[in-house]
Amino acid sequence: MYKTIKQVVFIIVTGCIAGCTGEPKKSPKTQLVDTTIKTVDTAKTATIPSKDADQPYNYSGPVHTDPGVYVDLDANGDNELLIVAHGSDTATYINESSKNFKLQRGDSIRVYWKAGTYRPAGDPEYPVKAIFATNYELIKPGKLSQALKAGMPRINYYYYDDQTSDYAKGVIHDAVKYYLVNTKQPEIRQELDYHKRNLLYTVERKTIQDREAWIISIHVDGPKPQPIHTVYYFFETPYVLYDNLESN
Questions:
Q1: What angle do CA 67, 71, 166 make, to 5 degrees?
Q2: Residues near 157 by Cβ (< 8 Å), separated by ≥ 6?
Q3: Are 41 and 88 in contact (CB under 8 A)?
Q4: pTM metric for this prediction
Q5: What would you report as the CA-atom Rg of the chain, rounded to the nearest whole angstrom?
Q6: Each residue of 134-156: pLDDT tens digit?
Q7: Which of 61, 145, 170, 225 could disulfide-pair with 19, CB 3.0 to 4.6 Å?
């Protein structure tokens, strides 16, 4: 499942990283490692019929149904976007569903969708192809949903950069939670599976090989936080944390 999500690319996101459940605390800075970024698969879209001139959205015809893995429901732009992984590919749907239940990254879902066109607000004369999620439903909870239900340890945070937006912090927090429940990194597995102590992650903004990155150091929380692992986040792969820079 984790490999599937690592291949997800979300081409709409311009900011990064995630809101948190606890109070911020300070922690020591971490060491950098140098490497490069790996390219990922781009999203697929369906073939679409033509659209009426006066409507921003146009979709008709048969309803298609596909199973997939929930990645995100993003409302940061002009449209609310449902991001779903289908095997090694990713689909970005304009969400037209009235669903309001909470999903977690990694949940198995079924998406009902139609092909159509969309007129962007800034350039309405030129419709673009789009796929529209008319409905979606949960098939099976993923590891993150199961961990949260069972009682996941509290996860606190500290950002060295005070300018990071709340939206960006939210994206990172979701990525950290998903990483924690899926990683095989032994120190983290020991904490989550046995000790179950509260965790703290610190986030430091850096430039690595001319790319903006966030260095995320994960600690056991406490009066003197104990660092246990460091991961890396890049704009180009907004739903992935890398264990080392050689893996991206």
A1: 160
A2: 20, 22, 24, 169, 173, 200, 201, 202, 203
A3: yes
A4: 0.74
A5: 19
A6: 999 999 999 999 999 999 999 99
A7: 170
